[in-house]
Amino acid sequence: MMVEPPPSQVQPDLAALYVRHREVLWRVAQSRLPKHLSHRTEDVIQDVFAKLLEKPPTQLINNWESYLVTLVRRHAITVCRKERDDRHGELPAEDGAAFAVGDGLAERAEAQVVGQALSRVEPRRRHVLERVVIADRPAKEVAAEMGISEGRISVLKKEGLQQLKSELEQQTGVAS
Q1: Looking at the chain, which residues constitute the CATH 1.10.10.10 domain(s)?
Q2: pTM of the model
Q3: Which CATH number fits domain 96-176: 1.10.3720.10, 3.40.50.150, 1.10.10.10, 1.10.60.30?
Q4: Counting beta carbons within 10 angstroms of the beta carbon of residue 68, is it exposed (0 to 12), middle (13 to 18) or buried (19 or more)?
Q5: Are 39 and 67 in contact (CB under 8 A)?
Q6: Which residue in 44, 48, 132, 173 has the most C-beta neighbors within 10 A?
Q7: What fold characterizes domain 1-90?
Q8: How far apart are CA 110 and CA 103, in angstroms?
Q9: Is the Cβ–Cβ distance between 152 and 143 less than 8 Å?
Q10: Helix (H) or strand (E) holding 21
């Protein structure tokens, strides 16, 4: 008599998962990688699957697509950070320090401009943008929190992004 292992010990068919979810994973990796790193998209996805082969998850995964998307997103961000650190490491020490400080100041200035524009976005739209776009929370979760439908979250997000863009254009005087 053969005993079935508990679901948490059953290894998924990673090849089938790759085939089933590769388009979504590709889009996720592409959305997180800057253009100059877009050639690394497939590497990011393959790295995730290689790590899964080496060390499969110990917990039960109910939604593999969501799990894989999260892993790919995180790994793409790690690749960006590593590339940035490597790039800064190639600069001479004094130039590298100045470059890093300059980047930090520019990033803070940009963040301040965006923060000011975001503060002028209608409150419900701003709430959705802060939760769904900035905090990267699922629309379904935010919809339940606000007591509205996912469709309404999508509309508020779209309107919020349009209003934010308009506020940024007014603030900076640059139309995109």
Answers
A1: 96-176
A2: 0.46
A3: 1.10.10.10
A4: buried
A5: no
A6: 44
A7: Rna Polymerase Sigma Factor; Chain: A (1.10.1740)
A8: 10
A9: yes
A10: helix 14-32
Per-residue pLDDT of 114-168, as tens digits, reads 888 888 999 999 999 889 888 888 999 999 999 999 999 999 999 999 998 998 8
Cα 107–Cα 79–Cα 48 angle in degrees, nearest 5:
140
**Whether the Cβ atoms of residue 97 and residue 69 lie closer than 8 Å to each other:** no
**What residues contact 51, with CB distance under 8 A and at least 6 apart?**
71
Residues of each domain in the chain carrying CATH 1.10.1740:
1-90
| Rounded-to-integer distance, Cα 56 and Cα 149, Å | 35
Cβ atoms of 14 and 25 closer than 8 Å: no
